[in-house]
Amino acid sequence: MAGVFISYRRDDSAGFAGALERELVTRLGRDRVFMDIKDIEGGTEFPTAIDQALKSSDVVIVLIGSRWLDATDAQGIRRLEKPGDFVRREVEFALAGRARVIPLLLDGTLLPAVEKLPIDLQPLRKRQTLELRNSHWDEDIARLLNHIREAMFALNIQETAEKIIGEGFNPNPPSSVQVNSLFYLGLALGVIFVVTGVVTGIESFRHQLPWYFALIFGGAGLLMCAGGALPFALRDRRRRMTKRLLKDGRPILTTFHRVEENTTIEVNGRHPFYVTTLWRNPVSHDLVQFRSPALWADPTAKASDRMITVMIDPDNLHHYVMDLSFLYHADPAIRRL
């Protein structure tokens, strides 16, 4: 499946098109770049092959050189005015489809004025243009690749979202009651110690007694308060991030990788478990790992061999939430820390 379609007029920008195609193939792979002269097999019906390639493309790059607008046929008729012109058909098809259309202006060429374009091509004026100059080749190629990768990533995430988000999506199963109780106990003890420290301090001042008892009680109380309050603060931060991701994030399907057990932590004889999943970035091909919050029962039997939804921030893959609702519904003993 082609990810990038290169649209060009041969007597206008064939040299640029060939050089650009080689650059993109080197960076994206042969199967992700379509150029008519190389990717249409002999005997294939040309219009059909072009239409199929456009349908499967995420990005259409329209190369616009000095002759793109005013090129004429043997009768002197401007080619863009003819409905059967292949370049016109390609751009019309792309503007009406799902792909991101990028007008690429070659060596200082200006984007044609709207009144000089056929009506069906006039939306091209609203698309963000980029430049490709011989004098700044590497810089312009790098900028173009950034736009291509961003477009391919966004389209992949959007299509995945349409398939996997359901009404039952719930990335935050209820928390463990026992673990919550420990946090509340620590917070309550901290408050008691702080109050004791304050009272001891007042009495020490009134009766000129040693002050270090007040300092000990007060310091211990502050540490207990911090220890009890910190998990709630972190949980509140996670809830706010989850709320933001549910509103603005994008869901992806990840593959179960393994369950990790942290034996260094123990609460009431139980250790926390973590579900880890893997996902292949469709653009960079990097393998990304996601890790769930702590769970207080082994979820291996329920989580293995399945796809798990993760809501991500496309701009920062370190911000995500994993949908573990299927675990909670299957086994209420599995609860998030």
From TrEMBL:
The keyword Iron-sulfur does not apply. Residues 1-152 form the TIR domain. The keyword Transmembrane applies. Keywords: Membrane, Receptor, Transmembrane, Transmembrane helix. The chain crosses the membrane at residues 182-205, 211-234. One of its GO terms (biological process) is signal transduction. This is Toll/interleukin-1 receptor domain-containing protein. It comes from Alloacidobacterium dinghuense.
